[in-house]
Amino acid sequence: MKVTDKVSSVGRGDYQFNKLPQNNKIIAEYVWIGGRGLDIRSKSRTLDIPKIKSLSDIPEWNYDGSSTFQASGHDSEILLKPRVFYPDPFRLGNNILVLCDTWKPDGTPTNTNFRSECLKVMNKAAHEEPWFGFEQEYVLYRNDTYPHRPLGFPEGGYPAPQGPYYCSVGGGCAFGRQIMEAHYRCCLYTGISISGTNSEVFPGQWEFQIGPVTGIHLGDQVWMARYLLLRVAEHYGTSVNWECKPVIGEWNGSGCHANFSTNSTRREGGIQTIYNYIEKLREKHMYCIDGYGKDNAKRLSGTCETSNINTFSFGVADRGASIRIPRVTANDGKGYFEDRRPASNSDPYVVSALLTDVTVLDGNSTEELHDRYVSFLTSIRPIII
Ligand code: ADP
Ligand code: MN
Ligand code: MN
Ligand code: MN
Where is the GS beta-grasp domain (predicted)? Predict the structure, then answer.
């Protein structure tokens, strides 16, 4: 069977207009998470200022929450609170992207806003300076075959079995490189700490790594990097699938491995603290799994480089375990470990908060966050974005 996919720029977002002067005004693109959790939304606003110097230069704003599954029509306004701003890699100049979190009129967070609870955990654990490195996997599709046929899949069938696609080079096995490349550059331009990328085991699947970054910055940067990927994919006429098991069977799913370290694990002999953390994670295995994304049971099958969702395990260099201790950490007797359980569709604010609470804090600082996330997951209807 022949692979017919050709990916090319479809000219969405004609960036030649970026060269025009803006009369001392800038465009701020407000970015937020919609009511289904992975439906990132954004809208633009002109600010009458030539350059933004600090967050306080950016006004709060609002949107129609009844169109994002977050409010009813008769009281529809959801408040946007700016949290971080980045230079805009699409509009260039002094234009910015503004990552916001979202609030209901009564002052409570919306169903998908877990940032403020994450921030509380990070402040409580600040003495341990937690560092995170998240590995975001995703699968690309041409728009006209989404969500049925990933890039690299021939029409009406399957490609050659997994084997050639991981870190692949060449037209027969690497699909969608333009998108990865453009996304990589966009992340660097914005100042996001992207530490690398690679193509993955499943055809049309890629990964980017954010890290190491501290505290709340992890969640902020992963969300903004996801937004950038959606924008870049759109430009090339493609769509991103964040589901954790896009194709059932002997095909790898998508994860978001969470690499983690603290002052105590990074210092001499820190591996003892890692073993101590691992025992705490064992005790709270299901509590963490609850917060590690949707449909994760389909992915954590015990095959395809995953552990079984019902069993907690760890090992040095073991890619079939829940927790992997990298060889370098074992050799040095200090460093970081990798929690392989989080799914590609997980919320990095939730995952980083749970991981930090269970290991560094008392394990009771995320109960509300945990329960809110679980009820959010059970309330959302399946959708394709
Ligand atoms: P893998 O071998 O699992 O594919 P990757 O190279 O894709 O690993 O990702 C490893 C991630 O771990 C990177 O994001 C990197 O920045 C991060 N990392 C490295 N050192 C640390 C550390 N000490 N603490 C937390 N994260 C770290
Ligand atoms: Mn990786
Ligand atoms: Mn990977
Ligand atoms: Mn990994």
Answer: 26-107
Residue nearest to atom 17 of ligand 1 (CA): 133
DSSP assignment letter at 69: T
Q: Give the other-Cβ count within 10 Å of 215's Cβ.
A: 20
Residue whose pair of structure tokens reads 């201790």 in the numeric block: 325
Pocket test for ligand 1, best of 135, 184, 210, 259 (most atoms within 8 A of CB): 259
pLDDT value at 385 more than 80: no
Listed in order, strand segments (DSSP E) in the chain are 26-33, 40-47, 61-64, 77-87, 96-103, 131-142, 194-199, 205-214, 238-241, 256-261, 314-316, 323-325, 337-339
Measured N-to-C along each axis, helices 215-235 and 115-124 cross at an angle, to the nearest 10 degrees, of: 140
Q: Give how many domains the chain has, as a whole number.
A: 2
In-domain check, residue 301: yes
The string of pLDDT tens digits covering residues 71-101 is 887 888 999 999 999 999 999 999 999 999 9
* Each residue's pLDDT tens digit, 164-219: 999 999 999 999 999 999 999 999 999 999 999 999 999 999 999 999 999 999 99
One-letter identity of residue 279: E
